[in-house]
Specification:
binds copper (II) ion; elongated; Immunoglobulin-like; eight-stranded antiparallel sheet; alpha+beta
C-alpha cells in the first residue's frame, strides 16, 4: 500500500469506530431490565425494569416471586452495589405487594446509571433490617435491547446517533480525500 493512502484509511477507520461508539450506547440505554436475587435465604427472585420517561423521570416496575402473600414489603433504590449498599434510602419505591411494585422516580435513568445504585427489598415494615432481595442497576449490552417496538427514548435517540455518526463519517471521508489530493498534486 502506498503511503498516501494511509490518511484516507485512518479517517475511514476512525469514523467507523466513532459511528459504532455513538450508535451502541444510545440504543442500549433505555429501557433496562435487571435481575433481583435472593438475600438471607429468602428464595425471592425476579426483575426490575427501568424506563426513562420524556419528562426526566424513570418508571421502575418490579416483578418478583417468593414473597409471603399479602404482606407489604419496603423496597428502595440505594446508592452503592448489593455488596456495598449505602443503608440510607436514595429513592423510595412503592411497597411490594404480592411481588409487584410500580413507581415513578424523580431522576433520569441516565443520572441513576451515572453512579452505582442498587434496588433492595426488605422483609416487611416491621423487619426492615432484613434484606430479602437485591439487584445492581447496570446498563446492558446493546444486543439485549430490542431494535423495534416498545417505544420510549431509545427510538428517538437512535436516529440522532445515526445522523451524528453519518455526519462524522462524511467529514472524515472528505478530509481523507482532500489529503489524498494534496499529496497527489
Ligand atoms: Cu432499602
Amino acid at each position: 500500500m502506498k503511503i498516501r493512502h494511509f490518511g484516507a484509511l485512518f479517517a475511514l477507520i476512525l469514523s467507523m469506530v466513532t459511528f459504532i461508539a455513538l450508535a451502541g450506547p444510545a440504543a442500549a440505554a433505555n429501557p433496562i431490565t435487571i435481575q433481583l436475587g435472593p438475600q438471607n435465604n429468602s428464595g425471592i427472585n425476579g426483575t426490575a425494569t427501568l424506563t426513562e420517561m420524556a419528562n426526566g423521570q424513570t418508571q421502575v416496575v418490579v416483578n418478583v416471586t417468593g414473597f409471603q402473600a399479602g404482606v407489604p414489603s419496603p423496597i428502595h433504590i440505594h446508592e452503592g452495589t448489593c455488596a456495598t449498599l449505602n443503608p440510607s434510602v436514595k429513592f423510595p419505591l412503592t411497597n411490594l405487594v404480592n411481588g409487584q411494585s410500580t413507581t415513578m422516580v424523580n431522576a433520569s435513568l441516565t443520572a441513576i446509571l451515572g453512579q452505582p445504585h442498587a434496588i433492595n427489598a426488605h422483609k416487611s415494615a416491621q423487619e426492615a433490617s432484613v434484606y430479602v432481595a437485591c439487584g445492581n442497576i447496570t446498563a446492558q449490552a446493546p444486543t439485549a435491547v430490542p431494535r423495534s417496538g416498545g417505544g420510549g427514548m431509545a427510538e428517538s435517540n437512535a436516529p440522532l446517533a445515526w445522523i451524528a455518526g453519518g455526519t462524522l463519517l462524511a467529514v472524515a471521508l472528505a478530509g481523507g480525500l482532500l489529503s489524498l489530493r494534496r499529496r497527489a498534486a
